[in-house]
Structures are given as structure tokens and as C-alpha cells.
Specification:
The chain is built from 13 helices and 15 strands. It has helices spanning 51-61, 76-88, 154-157, 162-173, 196-203, 214-221, 223-230, 242-255, 276-279, 290-293, 313-326, 331-346, 358-366, and strands spanning 8-12, 15-21, 45-49, 66-73, 97-99, 106-112, 115-122, 144-148, 177-181, 209-210, 259-263, 269-273, 297-300, 382-384, 389-391.
Length: 400
């Protein structure tokens, strides 16, 4: 079977995305979404969503061999998920977990120009996903295991994250590198009340590459600070500086992660890495150029594009970074690839149709694709013109 040759297993959360576009809400969505009011919307875009679909398909479109393991029901939405995966490539549906009587997860996504998307979400079968659902025999010989959205998967955060930590520990014992993506819990939900500091302390020693958004990790590690920033104008990243990012990243490195990449939305991607000793434990994805990767602190701003939608932007940015890691790129090159793939994503309304081949992304970068100006306060950082990256004061590599 083709799945046997896969380099990467992408597992975890998957859902059906139903995307609706509304007119420009200049006065805010509360001026449009009024009870009893008929709102004219654009045509619906139906696609798969969640880590398994978004990051998995993006990696596939970039030319990486991928095996997908997400859990769905045998209902109408589940059949739609399988059909949409097969349209991308028939083998992408072969590793999916279909369970009779389960309800397939879905999201209703509302896009309006100039406003971040609103998502109505049903977790469905993701809540019952557990380590035993994985097809463990198919992990043999793979290089990387990427798992996503444990805050939207009940078995992954209850009991202090024991199920998640145990699953990742078993994966690492098989020689694969592990990477983990998050999602911000609903504060009013059971996941929102979970002790995420304790969960991360248990889980991150088993995580080689940790890729949360700045909102997610602030919510989990410093809830009072997050709540203060959430009340301020603008997005949360605009109220942080390089020192804040460094403190957050060092805390995650101290918890056990080897590589931390913090997604900053339109402000780019921040990277912090551990020392050589921790990087050497990354199994099949241990960097060959390990000296280049050890003790780094870098930030890449986004490429300039016309934004059609932000659905899946973080997932595709992750796909670009993981593809670069798998290809043995330097941290600088992997970081640039990550923001480039993320930029390609937002040029389309859905999560993955904007992702081209790796070679197309590479050519576009080489052709002088302009970057967005940095708007974060980066005191003590320096800009490396040839690499088009910001280098942090904690960077352990002397760069001219």
C-alpha cells in the first residue's frame, strides 16, 4: 500500500469545515448577526479541517509522503470527509479511523473581510480519540509523528494529559520524532478549566517540536496576563515584545521541548531551540547540521499577500516548517519556508487549496517576494538582511 512509504504520520483532530463569507462588517459583526435579520452570504465552501486535514494535506501538496490518522463517524459528514480526502489523493483516506455510531466533528466558519474568522465547532468523535485508536503497526519506519489540537480532544487533556503523554512516549520509543500543535480552549469549557501548566509539564518531555500560537500558550501558561491583553485593542501579539516571547519559549524549553515555534499570526513565526544534547534525542528527525540548530532565537515576518481567508493558516505554516525540517534545511531556511507556506494559504478562503508544490514556494521566495515590515518591539534584536530574519539576543550562533 502507498501509505507504507509515508515519512510523516499526522494524527489527532479532524472535522468538516463549512465556510460562509459575509459582507464587509465595517461596524462589526454585531451589526450583521442580528436576531430575525436575513443576511446575504456568499457561496458555501466545504472542506476538511483540523490538524489531520490541514497540516496533512499541506504536507502532501508540498510533496511530503503522509499518512493521516483521524477519527470520524460513519455518518453523512464522515462520508464527506473521506470523499474530500480522496479528491486530494486516494491514499490519504486509507489510514482514517471510521467508527460506527460516532458523530463526525464539524465547524461552521464565518469569514468577513477585515475581521478574524468566527468558528462554531462540534468536537464529535475527536473527544473519544485515544492512543489505542492509532494503527501502531503503520508507524514503523516513519520519521515524524505530528499530533494536533489536544484541547479539542477530551481524552487528551483529562487525567492531567496522561493519555497524550503516554501516546507520545510510545511514539518516541519507536524512533520517530514528535511534533505537537495546540488549540485555544473555550474558557467556559472543561478544557478551559484544565490545568494546562501541569499537562504541559507532563507532555513536553515527549515533544520534539512544539508549535503553539501565542494566544494558546499565553492562555495556558499565564492566564491572568492573557486575560488582560485580551481586553486591549488589537491582537495579542502586538502587545508583546521580544523579551516576552523569549520568556515564554524558555519556559517551554525548560519543560522539555527541543524546538519551540510560536505562531504570531500576521506578525510571523518565532523560533527558539534547545541545546545540542536535547536536539540529539529527536529520533529520525535529529538535524544533521545540529550545530546550526542548537540554542537559536529567530523571528521571521510574513510575506506580503492579499488575504482571502485565514482558515488553516497556522496549520499550513506548521506544514512548511516541518517540511523544511524533514528536508534537512537550516533553521533560517525552515523558518522562511514556514511563513511562505502560511502566506500561500491565506490567499484562498479554505485551508489548503492555496498550497502549491515545494518547488513553486521555493521559486516564489527566490524571486524577491516582498516581506511585511516588523511591527513588534524587538529591543536588543538585530536584522540579518541576507537571511531576511530577526536574530534574538539569546541566539547562540554568532551571525554576521
Amino acid at each position: 500500500m502507498k501509505e507504507q512509504a509515508a515519512d510523516v504520520v499526522v494524527a489527532g483532530h479532524i472535522c468538516l469545515d463549512i465556510i460562509s463569507s459575509l459582507p464587509n462588517a465595517r461596524g462589526g459583526l454585531d451589526q450583521i448577526l442580528v436576531p430575525g435579520k436575513l443576511v446575504r452570504a456568499g457561496p458555501v465552501v466545504v472542506s476538511t479541517g483540523g490538524t489531520v486535514s490541514n497540516t496533512g494535506i499541506a504536507l502532501h501538496r508540498l510533496g511530503t509522503s503522509v499518512l493521516l490518522m483521524g477519527k470520524i463517524g460513519d455518518d453523512l459528514f464522515g462520508r464527506a470527509v473521506l470523499e474530500l480526502l480522496r479528491r486530494q489523493s486516494p491514499e490519504l483516506a486509507e489510514g482514517m479511523i471510521v467508527v460506527a455510531g460516532e458523530h463526525t466533528s464539524y465547524s461552521i466558519i464565518i469569514n468577513s473581510p477585515g475581521i478574524d474568522r468566527i468558528i462554531l465547532h462540534c468536537t464529535g468523535a475527536n473527544d473519544t480519540f485515544q492512543a489505542s485508536d492509532l494503527r501502531w503497526e503503520l508507524l514503523t519506519g516513519k520519521r515524524l509523528f505530528h499530533f494536533g489540537y489536544p484541547p479539542l480532544m477530551k481524552r487528551m487533556y483529562t487525567d492531567g494529559g496522561t493519555e497524550l503523554a503516554g501516546m507520545l512516549h510510545k511514539v518516541k520509543r519507536m524512533g520517530l520524532a514528535t511534533s505537537l500543535d495546540m488549540a485555544k480552549p473555550d474558557p467556559a469549557s472543561e478544557a478551559g478549566r484544565a490545568d494546562w501548566i501541569a499537562i504541559l509539564e507532563k507532555v513536553l518531555p515527549e515533544v520534539d517540536v512544539f508549535l503553539p500560537s501565542v494566544e494558546e500558550i499565553l492562555y495556558m501558561l499565564d492566564r491572568p496576563f492573557y486575560e488582560r491583553l485580551a481586553l486591549a485593542k488589537g491582537d495579542i501579539a502586538e502587545h508583546l515584545d521580544g523579551e516576552h516571547l523569549g520568556v515564554l519559549a524558555d519556559r517551554m524549553i525548560g519543560m522539555g521541548a527541543a524546538i519551540v515555534a510560536i505562531k504570531l499570526g500576521e506578525h510571523g513565526l518565532y523560533l527558539r531551540t534547545a541545546g545540542e544534547r536535547r536536539l540529539q534525542s529527536m529520533g529520525a528527525c535529529t538535524p544533521k547540521n545540529i550545530g546550526e540548530w542548537a540554542d537559536r532565537e529567530l523571528l521571521a515576518t510574513c510575506y506580503q499577500v492579499e488575504v482571502a481567508g485565514t482558515t488553516g493558516a497556522g496549520d499550513c505554516t506548521i506544514a512548511g516548517f516541518l517540511a523544511g525540517l524533514l528536508k534537512g534545511l537550516s533553521p533560517e531556511a525552515a523558518l522562511r519556508a514556514a511563513v511562505a507556506v502560511g502566506a500561500c494559504n491565506v490567499e484562498r478562503e479554505d485551508a489548503v487549496s492555496g498550497i502549491p508544490s515545494w518547488e513553486t514556494v521555493r521559486r516564489r521566495m527566490a524571486a524577491g517576494w516582498p516581506r511585511r515590515a516588523n511591527r513588534l518591539r524587538l529591543d536588543g534584536w538585530r536584522f540579518h538582511a541576507s537571511e531576511e530574519l530577526w536574530i534574538g539576543p539569546k541566539d547562540g550562533k554568532i551571525t554576521v
